[in-house]
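hey so i finally got around to running the thing on that chain from the lab meeting. sorry it took forever, my laptop kept dying and i had to restart like 3 times. anyway pasting the input first so we r on the same page abt which one it is
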Amino acid sequence: MKTLKPFIAVLVLLVILYNFAGCRKTTDEFIISDPLAYLAEPESFPVQVNLDSLLRLESGAPLVFPVSGTYNCLPRPLFKDSVLYNMSNGQKDFIVKVDNNPGKGKYYSWPQGLVIDSLSGSVNISASQSGYRYAVGFVRAGTRDTCLQNIIISGASYKDSVYVIGNDDTLAHPYFNADPNWQSICDASGDDDYQDENGHGNGNDKCEFDAEDNKGKKGRANSKHVKVRTISGVINLK
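ok and heres what got predicted. didnt touch it at all, straight out
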């Protein structure tokens, strides 16, 4: 028995070291040190893209903006217009396709809010959040380089701000096309411009806020006591 003890001790030590090495390897396999390399992994893509896929909202965790992204790195811009307008005319979805196809690859966008098909680059304007500037990124298949282009979804948005109601700071004014300095094309309006059952709040020939949605319903914000002036777009926070 005395001659076996050193042998057994060495054997146990070897087993422990082997298990430790195996666990370390397994853990390292799930660590992504370069997220961009993971996103730009070479893939195979279908010859044709089913356009129905871009009608769904592609969701998921927000992607980190690429550190090595480059502007003006394609022969021609993905979209010939930098401002995209919703020309749906009451239709449910208005789709804008990439004007200059750069070849096989994947498309991404920042920040969240743009509904873009990751294979074709087509944008669902109707389903995207309007009034914001987005960076669209394209990674060519088999590469790690991200080519970027900025686009704006035309529309109105509101600044993130703190309003002090006690100081009569009660009105949130919209800004347009991602530019807080853009002069409003809408007419001014007052407290008689809220959508109600008495025929008030129908906008005018220039602008209409809280208008019909895709289901044909109007005044949904005002019906929930969010006081939106339908001509100017001003929100009364009182």
